[in-house]
Amino acid sequence: xxxxxxxxxxxxxxxxxxxxxxxxxxxxxxxxxxxxxxxxxxxxxxxxxxxxxxxxxxxxxxxxxxxxxxxxxxxxxxxxxxxxxxxxxxxxxxxxxxxxxxxxxxxxxxxxxxxxxxxxxxxxxxxxxxxxxxxxxxxxxxxxxxxxxxxxxxxxxxxxxxxxxxxxxxxxxxxxxxxxxxxxxxxxxxxxxxxxxxxxxxxxxxxxxxxxxxxxxxxxxxxxxxxxxxxxxxxxxxxxxxxxxxxxxxxxxxxxxxxxxxxxxxxxxxxxxxxxxxxxxxxxxxxxxxxxxxxxxxxxxxxxxxxxxxxxxxxxxxxxxxxxxxxxxxxxx
Length: 333
Fold this sequence. Notes:
Blueprint: H1 7-13, H2 15-27, H3 29-44, E1 55-60, E2 63-68, E3 71-75, H4 84-89, H5 97-103, E4 110-114, H6 120-123, H7 126-133, E5 137-139, H8 141-149, E6 156-158, E7 165-167, E8 170-177, E9 212-219, E10 222-227, E11 244-248, H9 258-266, E12 270-274, H10 298-305, E13 310-312
Parallel strand pairs: 3-4, 4-5, 5-6, 10-11, 11-12, 12-13
Antiparallel strand pairs: 1-2, 2-3, 7-8, 8-9, 9-10
């Protein structure tokens, strides 16, 4: 879908609705938190149907670890959570090696680290992860500059959209995409290309968005699609059906018609919600929820598009290596 000349006016016209939604959230905050917690518990109990030997673990926010044939892919890993004081005070935002040892210790070789865009909550841990494991990161030109700044520029590949990358048992393709406009639907936070070339300057604002990608992964007959932010370039979304859509849901209300548009092209069997959690809370703390994310009503949004589309979430991350990741079972409903 190409933006038209009236899109800007439409965005402004929607601001009162966004403000009203925020006001309702403030008035109902405690009830919303309980409802979201109950919904998360229910969604996390629903097993995914994955091929034998394939495991999928949620790392929080938009991060995942996908393992097959003893090899691992990381997608947007983010465990070195940035506290609010660093976000507001512009303090350095850097990876925490101790948290890497607890949460990013793979069971075997790392076939690759895939990065959908370079905001801090998607990319802060990537250079250190590649340094520790010897893995290569795949993503945008901004990712390449990030890796260079941390002294691991040789471990970065600037991807060609739609080109197939064979990484161990995985075949990966990157598709051009877009980031949702989170600030009342007006602006992408920290938009533009990452330019900082030394680590002293890497506060949260230095992790600029860069090019955004949806990531398609095939392994063992399974087809997954990862979208870390709830926006899209319609004609770039692959068609033909995917088994599992890993969907970041924060900001979805700022993208008009998001679910009908993207689900109509992906035609997924099941949608797995992510990026609904409070990404400023420590990764080992109980799961909190993003501002006005309204996880409790999300299954109804999917059902309004197609009642045959399954919905699920994965359990919250736990330190000490893999713990009962999704590895099989019946199809969620």
